[in-house]
Amino acid sequence: MTMPGRSRTPRAGRSAAGPAPKPIGSARRAQMITTYGVGSMIAIDDASWIVAGLEDWRPNTEQQVHEPRIQRALGVDYLYLPPAESAYFTAGLRRFPEFYSCQGSGNCNLLQPYWKFRASDSKCPCGEGTLIPSRFVVACDDGHLNDFPYRAWIHRGAKSGPCDQDMRMITTGRTASLRSIQLVCGCGAKGSMEGAFRRSELRQLGIKCYGGRPWLRGAAKVTGCERLPRTLQRGSSAAWFGIVRSSLAIPPWSTGLQRIIESRFEMWRDEDDATIERQAIKAKLVKGSVTVQHIIDAVRRREALEKGNPVPDQDLDLSLKREEYEQLCSPTVEEQTDEKPDFECRPAEAVPVPQLDQVMLVTRLREVRVLQSFTRVEPPGPADAESRRGELSVGEMDWLPAMEVVGEGVFLRLSERRLTEWEERPEVRKRAAGIIGNHQRLLDRRAEAAGKTAPVSPVTARSIMIHTLAHLLVNEWSLDSGYPASAMRERLYTSPEMAGILIYTATSDSAGSLGGIVRQGEPERLKHTLAAALRRAEWCSTDPLCMEADAAGSDSLNLAACHACSLLPETSCEHNNTLLDRGLVLGWPAEPELGFFS
Q1: 295-311: pLDDT as tens digits
Q2: pLDDT digits (tens, 9 = 90+) for 371-408
């Protein structure tokens, strides 16, 4: 990570031009997608920075990620790995927050923008203190970010309004509350930070969003933003929620022939057969069982498959998952090539329980995750306005940062007949109605704030039960497979025409393909671990409070689910540990026989 300099949009086959800037810090590639993506704040030594827009990134364009399905859905030409551990290939940083204060044994305590200190590092020119970045920022629901308005805050109630004299921040240390952070102005105005996190206080002061976008190069502030800003701590998780899209590489995109032509497809697109033949022979791609005609056919097939328009955002996940579901339900066809495909699955020898229709052992898979955008203050949701999405660049870019993980998994398809009969029962519908109603009210609130019509909640009794079953299995397999729960991930297929779970390893290193998960799908082992997971879930250490709860979890989107029985590390769950209920899996006190696995 570096301070941004001049750069230009990277194109396939070459890297951004210009001298290599001096690195300031480093982050892992996965973090550049999930934690420290564009627009997020990162602390490095005694300074705080914000990750700059994509125009200030220098990705290595030779490290391209190929996944045509998600590229087509997102409307981009290229996916590049985030730069990591390199003095030349870097991501840009900008200093933020701008306000710093002198903290130390002296009496300086100045609070002002960093440039006013005229310092080259974290030492205050007074010689007695260290420059510490502001702990507080303000953000709005539309993704704008600004320094906390200290001057307006300290002069609240003053008839003359804010002045231009020096401000000081003094931390008394008497308590851990905001009351101990005192602000003093040279004009005599003084006060504490108490109440700064109450939105009503900012509203009374008439403080509106300033429309700041400090992560974008030269981007002017958005004028006229009517959103009420919210005070956040700089390191708060609410300051940045990444919108990460993911897809599995599936046939025909994952075949060995597609991998052979992957790096040359852009060159061969729309070329005649003779040119492709000549270049393929020169590159020594025609060998073993791979013929020239195989390569030409693969190029033509990819050209046909890539014809399509970007998928509307609200349909993106469902569109990708429908294609995956079809492939997961069918064994892969063995190819006559030496190149290993990205996706291989085969049926298990038997299905151990009547509640399942199919068990597929996914011996090899590749998942691609792409940073599409981000939100602030509240996590992203289907009812959000488009204005909530933070921009990753000033202008339109033809690429996005992405990462890929290679691993293995087990796919379970539930019995559609049993599932339909079960979810039609009035008692089951009534049990699920509490979560569905709370989710609909959440969508209504979000849609009202966005000035749009709320979508109908997609949550059903089937989706809640299948999601909870996935959590119970991940927790059980973490004890039996050798992988921690944080190294596994769920992928849910729960629309009315789908009823399946893919549990797979989600690590970006070789630990994701050691065979421990695939073995869990073997008939006897699956029968044993499923029974153990259900038996373990029958009793929670917080019962009866957990099982008898009318609502639990964030936004009351859970019923019988808590950290002691059902929750997973957040990186393993698709829904941030919401939409869970053990009762629908095992039965609940009033109807102990109506769980799907009762």
Answers
A1: 887 787 777 766 665 65
A2: 999 999 999 988 888 889 999 999 889 999 999 988 99
Task: Centre a 10 Å sphere on the Cβ of residue 509 and count the other Cβ atoms it contains.
Answer: 12
Quote the tokens at residue 116. 């006013």
User: Are the C-beta atoms of residues 447 and 534 closer than 8 Å to each other?
Assistant: no
Task: Please state whether beta strands 399-414 and 78-80 pair in parallel, antiparallel, or not at all (unpaired).
Answer: parallel
Q: How far apart are CA 408 and CA 45, in angstroms?
A: 38
DSSP state of 270: T
Q: Hey, what amino acid is at 509?
A: D
Query: Which three-class secondary structure string do you get for 534-568?
Result: HHHHCCCCCCCCCCCCCCECHHHCECCCCCCCCCC
Burial 331-342 (b: 16+ CB within 10 A, else e): ebeebebeeebb
Q: Residue 361 and residue 502: Cα distance in Å, rounded?
A: 10
Alpha helices in 55-141 (DSSP H): 68-74, 114-117
Cβ proximity of 249 and 67 under 8 Å: yes
Q: How far apart, in whole angstroms, are the C-alpha atoms of residue 390 and residue 49?
A: 17
> Could you tell me if residue 6 is left (phi over 0), alpha (psi between -120 and 50 degrees) or otherwise beta?
beta
Q: Is 188 left (phi over 0), alpha (psi -120 to 50) or beta?
A: left
Q: Which amino acid is at 353?
A: V
- Residue type, position 408, single letter: E
User: What share of residues in the chain are helix, strand, coil (percent, to 5)?
Assistant: 30, 20, 50
> Which single residue is written with the structure tokens 């921040």?
169
